[in-house]
């Protein structure tokens, strides 16, 4: 009976340790691909891909959008490392190296995008703030939501000075 209690106690401790040591972004790690079919017509269709991988003290998100217009395809790729902060479930962007070899976010007052990420359960959100040349703002929000079938629902919105400029929603398949 004593050995059984020790075994059960050991299993409980191992389970607690594995839950505590797992990063909240672990379930998002992977590659996802899909399409956005626009209700506005063919010229707004997009191929989308997202790669989320672990890096030192955080994770990296690389996303690519291929937009089809007439006979041309326009491709944009972005990649940002997000590092842990002292605030639980909030990650700072590390987009450039500083003088001491560390990584820092970009400066929105120099026209550079300022980004950060937040994880709430099965939703990883990336926020990007841009201070426009006229002193206004643009806020881009990328929600990446894990679905019950382990795919990624993507919701993107772009707001300029309080007005929604663009919004898309689609689901990407885990590869």
Task: Provide a short characterization of the protein structure.
With 175 residues, the chain is mainly beta. The chain is built from 1 helix and 12 strands, in the order H-E-E-E-E-E-E-E-E-E-E-E-E. The strands form 2 sheets. Strands 1-2-3-4-5-8-9-10-11-12 form a 10-stranded antiparallel barrel. A two-stranded antiparallel ribbon has the order 6-7.
CATH class: Mainly Beta
Count of strand segments: 12
Give start-end ranges of low-pLDDT stretches: 12-21
Q: Order the strands across the largest sheet as they lie in space.
A: 1-2-3-4-5-8-9-10-11-12
**Architecture, according to CATH?**
Beta Barrel
The overall pLDDT average reads: 86
Report on the biggest sheet. 10 strands, antiparallel, barrel
Following the backbone from N to C, one meets helices and strands in this order, namely HEEEEEEEEEEEE
N-to-C terminal Cα separation, in Å?
47 Å
What is the number of independent domains? 1
What share of residues is helical?
10-25%
**Radius of gyration over C-alpha positions, nearest whole angstrom:** 20 Å
Q: Do you know the CATH topology?
A: Lipocalin
Structural class by secondary-structure content: mainly beta
Q: How would you sum up the global shape?
A: globular
Strand % is over 45%
Describe the protein in words.
This protein has 175 residues and is mainly β. It has one domain (24-174): Lipocalin (Beta Barrel). It has one helix at residues 2-21; strands spanning 30-36, 46-55, 58-69, 72-84, 90-94, 96-97, 103-104, 114-120, 123-131, 137-146, 152-160, 163-174. The protein has a ten-stranded antiparallel β-barrel with strand order 1-2-3-4-5-8-9-10-11-12. A two-stranded antiparallel ribbon has the order 6-7. The longest helix is centred in the N-terminal third of the chain and has 20 residues, at 2-21. The protein is globular. The model is unreliable at 12-21 (pLDDT under 50).
């Amino acid at each position: 009976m004593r050995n059984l209690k020790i075994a059960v106690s050991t299993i409980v401790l191992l389970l607690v340790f594995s839950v505590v040591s797992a990063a909240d972004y672990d379930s998002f790690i992977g590659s996802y691909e899909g399409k956005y079919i626009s209700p506005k017509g063919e010229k707004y269709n997009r191929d989308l891909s997202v790669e989320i991988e672990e890096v030192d003290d955080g994770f990296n998100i690389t996303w690519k959008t291929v937009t089809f217009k007439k006979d041309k395809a326009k491709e944009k790729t972005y990649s940002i490392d997000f590092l842990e902060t002292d605030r639980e479930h909030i990650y700072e962007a590390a987009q450039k190296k500083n003088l001491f070899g560390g990584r820092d976010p970009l400066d929105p007052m120099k026209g550079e995008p300022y980004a950060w990420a937040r994880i709430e359960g099965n939703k990883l959100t990336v926020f990007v703030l841009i201070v426009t040349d006229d002193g206004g703002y643009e806020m881009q929000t990328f929600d990446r939501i894990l679905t019950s079938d382990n795919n990624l629902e993507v919701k993107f919105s772009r707001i300029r000075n309080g007005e929604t400029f663009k919004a898309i929603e689609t689901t990407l398949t885990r590869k």
